[in-house]
Amino acid sequence: MPYPNAAPAGLGPLAQEAAQVIYQHRMLSTRQLHQLITPHHAHAEYMRRQLHTLRTAGLADTVGRRRCGQTELLWWLTDKGAQAVEAVGLLPPRPYRMSTVAALGPLQEHTLATVDTGLAFVTHARRLRHECGPLDWSPENAHAYRDEARPGEDLALIPDAVLNYVHTDRERRTRTMLTFFIEVDRTQMTIARLAAKLHAYAAYEKFAPQPAGPRSRRSPAAPAWRARYPAFPRLLLVLTGASPSRLERRIADLRSLAASDPLLTTTPLRAGVTTLEQLGEHGPFAPIFTPVLGLADLTDAWLRTAYPTAPLPA
After folding, report:
1. Whole-prediction pTM value?
2. At what angle do helices 45-56 and 13-25 cross, to 10 degrees?
3. What residue ranges of the chain have pLDDT lower than 50?
4. What is the pLDDT of residues 169-183, one digit of tens each?
5. Quick check: 87 and 16 in contact, CB under 8 A?
């Protein structure tokens, strides 16, 4: 939704929408912004003009990135641009501020891969006439928890993104809110660290804060996640940054490590892994996810079977 009163004179609704999307996701390429916001235009030139308006107004800036032998622009908001978005109050404020140094830093590719993951959901939601837009996922929101394996420590689980998706079944006349934890792995962390992330999600699913007062008078505490989600989100791990054969080996290694973790062998956590290439080509409801826990069965559309749901009014 555009913000009509916070933008400088001459800044149109589309440029305002682009500013919101950049604020939410920190940094995006021209291609990503075009596909997210103006896919009905055959070429990205119209989006480029809107982005140029933002840069001329001092609200956005760019860095270059070499891709496929060409240089593409990556867009991020200046302090002035971030303050303009925050002044309207339509989006949750984010303390993070991008800079030229950060935009060129080691997290550049990871940030863009996370956006491409969300973009795959948006693209296929349009095709399937479901609901998922450019602002329906939020990066790096902290979830406080404790782990019995690390007594006394206050921990924070920070997914790469939390994504909301409204699945519509027109034959049954039902609408269902699906919420996913997204973890993007570019093969730059060890497989042991990736398995440790899985353990953290299982610990968070189990964590129930203990109320104050004498232990004998305490009622059983509800899991902390129930304060945020109607059902525990399914975990999706999206792999990229290596050859298909290497990613296949990584999936096998991850499943092997997960099977050796006692917490993961008993958790109700549902976690699936795929590649960014498969997700972009086939969409999230194709049989592209390998369950991280249990049998590696790809004979059904894993995401669509027994997913945690929150029914919506039809």
Report:
1. 0.89
2. 80
3. 1-9, 299-300, 306
4. 888 888 889 999 999
5. no
Pairing verdict, β 137-139 and 143-145: unpaired
Q: Among 142, 163, 165, which Cα is nearest to 154's?
A: 142
